[in-house]
Amino acid sequence: MKGDFIVKLLTEITDFIVDLSLLWIKVPYKGFRYSDFYLDGLEESKKYYGFKNLQRRGIIKGARSNQFVFTKKGKKWFEKSMIKYFRNKNRGQWDKKWRLVIFDIPKEMHKERVRFREKLKFLGFAMLQKSVFIFPYSCDEEVADLSSTLNVGDYVDLIVAETAGFKEEEFLKEFGLRRD
After folding, report:
1. DSSP string, 1-41
2. Domains in the chain, please, with CATH?
3. What distance in Å separates the CA atoms of residue 46 and residue 2, rounded to the nearest whole number?
4. Which pLDDT value is given to residue 64?
5. What average pLDDT does range 143-150 have in this prediction?
6. CA distance linking residue 4 with residue 166, whole number of Å
7. What is the pTM of this model?
8. Distance between CA 130 and CA 125 in Å, rounded?
9. First-residue to last-residue Cα distance in the chain
């Protein structure tokens, strides 16, 4: 299946990032090891040619013999691919409600606040304000897990709303939804 390599690679990378306590910003500098990717069900030759294709396109480059890093172009590709392959996939029918994640994480927890904000963006949430994000699907479990992982649960609230306010049309378009 076309894109099978990409979907499996993106899935494993996101699992790897979560295992690194959401330190996405540092991962590209450290790099990934080719051998860390099993890519369930893919033959070694398809895995090899998949990585070579990404390298030829300038998305990754070899850091060392068994490692690669994402290039600047590759980071943009990664974000777009995550949206293309995962955003709104398996989310089911939209219940016409919006989820607002509101947080007020103290200054002393600056790193956690930045990581929380970046992970919300990574998961497909749209930013309404610096500490207010919106999402059209149920996400209680994801927000709870993320809050727990970063130890910021006391500073995070999730509100379910009937409307997204004055920017609803903008968010409907961004998420590819219709209010019918």
Report:
1. -TTHHHHHHHHHHHHHHHHTTT-TTTHHHH-EEGGG---TT
2. 4-86 (1.10.10), 98-175 (3.30.70.240)
3. 11
4. 64
5. 84
6. 39
7. 0.58
8. 12
9. 34
